[in-house]
Amino acid sequence: MEKNNTVIRLHLELDLAHMSDREIEILKKYGSMKESISRDILVPADITLHALNYVILRAFGWQNGHLHHFALPDEVFDELTEQKFYTWSKLAGVYFRFPSENFEDIYWDDNYKENENLKSWMKRKYTGPYKYKGNSEHYLYSQLEVRDFFERYPVVTVQEVSLYEESKPYQVNPKDASVYQVQNAFVDIFCHELIERIPLMSVLQPSFIRIMPMSWIRHGIMEKLAALDVERGLDVCERNYYCSGKSMREVLESYNVTAEPVTHLLHYRYDYGDGWEVSITAEDVYCCDEETGWTRLGGDMKVDIPFDTLEEVVEKYRPVCIAKDGIELIDDVGGISGFCDFLESAFDINLNDPDYKVLISEAGDMLNWAYMMGWTGKWISPKKTL
């Protein structure tokens, strides 16, 4: 396999938009935060969203115990899909994951065993080369789901909710409906999740590179799909449904279409109860060839990262953390507000409080719980983060 000599610098930043001044103060005082809770990561250019998930989990200290997904900003999603469910359905398997509860396939390699070292297990997941071995995110498989959906639901019943007036339910053909009408008609359909087999740079554009008009991107994708003769591919896929996994995967892979970058920003959401959200941007691109060595595409072209660090990403095919702000977080703590409450209760104890002995005891219980959840509270250097 040809070595990939391109490295991307990503900036990952936790959403703190709704934090109070008091909570920000707590994060700075007890969470080692200066400006934000963020990580700067160097990754191989062909890292998939699937592998990036494990990078984010490890970088922020989460334990992979909850659901997650990647999504485009709402305005980008609306422009790409034209807000039409039929347009979205054509792009299912190119950008978007068709709604499914087949978690065994979605999390096709989530094979962690209780006695394993979690850090080492995650490291294997985000170390390349990157290969998707599931089924549901391939284009043909997604389109089988699309065809079945349209056959099963010639009409859907929409009940729109308004704060100002009560609307009557109405029916609409999903091929003529908006994405939001179809989502409204089903409690378990969410169309914004991106498939994770695709390389990050097939959807995310570095901040210094202009994105093509969305209509051009959409038209180009549709032309590629039309050239594939998808209907014939669906028939082939159905005939091979019960063949060996390898035979089936070869059929599926032959019909995949390469996505085009559509955004400068991606959202990563983890644990829908706690509501963690991380923004992802590509800040720089570093390339290497035999004649010129390492060059930087962004900024003033001067490479601002040590060559040996870039070589480490390329040679070991593994992400490297080069900068961070804020300590690691905790699962099941109640999101960022709950994390602030935890830090305050565990460390901000007034010894002049008449109940300080009770508070110290409660703080000890909380810290024991946090340690059990894999949290140490110690500052981990960027070099040792991944």
Q: Quick one: biggest sheet?
A: 7 strands, antiparallel
List the total number of helices. 15
> Strand-and-helix sequence, N→C?
EHEHEHHHHHEEHHHHEEEHEHHH
Helix content: 25-40%
Characterise this structure.
This protein has 386 residues and is of the alpha+beta class. The protein has 15 helices and nine strands. It has helices spanning 21-30, 49-60, 74-81, 85-91, 103-106, 118-126, 139-152, 179-185, 214-228, 230-239, 245-254, 307-316, 335-347, 356-372, 382-385, and strands at 6-14, 38-44, 68-71, 156-158, 170-172, 266-270, 276-289, 293-296, 320-325. The strands form two sheets. Strands 1, 2, 3, 6, 7, 8 and 9 form a seven-stranded antiparallel β-sheet that branches. A two-stranded antiparallel ribbon has the order 4-5. A hairpin with a 3-residue loop joins strand 7 (276-289) and strand 8 (293-296). Helix 2 (49-60) packs antiparallel against helix 6 and helix 7 (139-152) packs across helix 10 (230-239). The protein starts with 5 loop residues before the first strand and ends with a helix. The mean pLDDT is 90.
Features:
alpha+beta, 7-stranded antiparallel sheet, two-stranded antiparallel ribbon, 9 strands, 39% helix, 14% strand
Brief account:
With 386 residues, this protein is α+β, with helices and mostly antiparallel strands. 39% of the residues lie in helices and 14% in strands.
